User: What shape does this take?
Amino acid sequence: MTQATLGDDELFGEAASEMREDVESSLEAGWAALPEADDVWETDAENVLGVLNGLNSALDAGDAEDHLRDAKKWFTMGQRADAFDDADDLEAEILDLEETIETVADAGEQVSELTATIPQLRGTLEEAGAADADADADETDAESDAEPDPDADGTAEEADAD
Assistant: This one.
């Protein structure tokens, strides 16, 4: 083998090692950019809307998608160059990170929908409660108008006895 060939093989080995490190560091940064579990689970809100707004803010994948993209880019380049001896672990971690980011995004969309729905639902229920209260008040007024006052002249007791 010539000196140039040995140098090329050594350089390729270094490049392959650096590509693997780039993929691993991008994956590590991607995992770190995801929301903390406690941020999603715990809340200090006083009502449901506050909880949903806090949860919606917590369900932000941040820069995780950018780091995932970088990891995929370096992984694809290394795979096509046949630079990795064993890339199954990297591929599996890329898929795990991708699925986790999708789960966070899906949960965020669901929370956003609830955040929009809950105030509308509250308004509808308040209107229904006000309508029920008005109907109950009208019914009470109608009953008191229809029933004679039992203490007025004693005729109500006689009517009840018949």
Observations:
- Residues 75 and 91 are 8 Å apart (CA to CA).
- The mean pLDDT is 84.
